[in-house]
Amino acid sequence: MSAGRRAGASSIFWRLSRPRSAADRQRARRMAFGVAGSGALLLAALAILTVRVGTASSYTCDESGCYTSFGRSGPQDGGLAPYVVESGLRGGTAVGAVLLVAPFVLLALQALRTGTAARERRLAALSLAGATRRDLRRLAFLEGTRAAVIGALAAGPLYLLLWLVLGPALPIGSKMLPQPGWPILIGWLVMVAAAVPLGGLVAAQAARPAAVSPLGLTRRRQRPLTLAHAVAPVISAALIAFFLRWSSGMGQLGVGLAAASTVALAISVGPWVILFTGWCAARRRGLVTSMAGRRLLADVRTPGRVVGVMLAVGISYGVIAALVVDVTQGDAYDQMFYLAGMAGAAIAIAVAAVVATFSLVVGATEQVLDNARSTAILVALAASPAFVSRIVRRQMLLAAVPATVLGAVLGWIVFGVVVIGSEDEGVGLKLAVALLAAMAAAALSAAVGALVAARAVRPAIRSSSGPENLRTP
Amino acid sequence: MSQVGVSDPAEPVLVLENIQHAYRRTIAVRGVSLTVQPGEILAVTGPSGCGKSTVLHVAAGLIRPQSGTVRLFGQSLTGAGDDERARLRRGKLSLVLQFGQLVPELTGVDNVALPLLLDGHGPTQARRLALGWLERCGAQELADVEPAEMSGGQAQRVAVARSLITSPQLMLADEPTGSLDSIGGRELLDLMIGEARRSGAALIVVTHDNSVAARADREIRLFDGEIASEAVLV
After folding, report:
1. Can you give the residue ranges of the ABC3 transporter permease C-terminal domain (chain A) (predicted)?
2. Shortest alpha-carbon distance between residue A123 and chain B (Å)
């Protein structure tokens, strides 16, 4: 095929890769935001790792309180927090920033997988005109590349914004990010260059689960839970107990394996939490809750994956709340050193919770699109699109909030009651308040994420509610 | 570019042998066999739910039947992958559906040129040919119009122009006049049958409209997924 001939198909795909409808634009924006968020955090990790040793301060405390070596007249580019400056802590802080990338990557991936009714019609029409799967993957590649490049370009300014908040805006001695320099500029340029192939390849891979034909788009059906799904949580729980019991003999390895088993438990128990929540909700008398429960039961595995993250988020809240109780028992240095870090971690977890919950959008959107005809019939008969939105909103709240609150309680029980409660007497009231605070924070962040996600499904609901979907075969 | 080789003029363009297909527990087609010769115009009729569309979708390679064989242009479709089936749709075989077949983001001329563009033709040549086919189909004024601004009949004309641009040897149409009024439907059918007669292509029309069926060379009537009757009309 000559270059001129290839240009024909390429020009068509390039035009089609541009988001045209409002729903398509929203999808592209979500993909770009996911890339931009993860890019800014990667740049933050890079900035932390490239801090010049000896340019910043550390805490010194005496009877009059805590202050930094720069004191009240420190240099403008210094004043970094010990988490960033001290070589023993810097790596951990950078890893924390990288871990926060995960929810943003999840968001970008989920946005990629989210279809829109217009996009599905376009793919079916292209297939009718003779587009092969390779052609459609090419289109997905261009869509992904476009969003990834825009996101990577936006990562630079977003990092600057992050630096303003976590640098100049913080007092000397607690700044988390150093002034941007050459490493950040080079890292940003590398990121933009890498976005072209990576965004495209990931998007092309994400397009695989759906089979497109002129008759429409067929997604791989969700398989029901199997015996392996039933056994996995039990084995994970047994491994946690084993490694905790023998961790003293195994040292750091035991603790690491116990942590890995906890992650496995959180992931494997997710679908069961959804199954139980959906089962309970489906039996409620209220129409909205009952329908939301039935929608959860129709596909327990997709939201189940997010539940794993939400459980982990909840556990983190529980542990932090209990740790705060523990730290407030200590001296002024401990309080100054740990509380700032915990506040930062709590904010980071809240962001992770909102972003992770937002990824529920994919499953809900696919469900809405797959059932476009029944949605259109529901709207044509009696309900409004707003009613369908309420059902989806309830569905997301049911998927996110109970799991996060359950996680908070679990984290509080393990760390608060077992570890702290057994060592310190007289902290009962403080621990009780900490539990309430952890549950409230967990519920709030999960609910905010669910509500944001429910808003994001609205375009799919609107496009599925139209009368043109009544004649969909 | 099609992977399916050049067919013998005397060879049937389509042979279905003992096709059986079910959607979950509902058997849509049971033991259907039929042969379509080059240039033949065949109407597949029957009441709703009798399996007409399923037969057409099997013939077009959109559905893999649970049993039976499909031979298109002398080659079995059994081992053909999705990509090979897609290439067929931009080569020797064309498909016209009742609605929803134009790419919403492309103008009329680009929709018609699409199979050629996908096949690697240059945009200038593809659009020139597309304009020619739009003109033959009486839809030249739709060249720069997007599907959302077209009426049902106009969109069908553009779809027919697109189905003809690759000079197919077999045209498949699933209720092509189903969304049109009687005059628009008759005009569209005149266009499809006229082009099929002129080019010597075979045409299979699935319809429940007797006036459409009456214009075919042969009619096959399905009932409950089986061939209930067969009549030569010319």
Report:
1. 98-205
2. 8
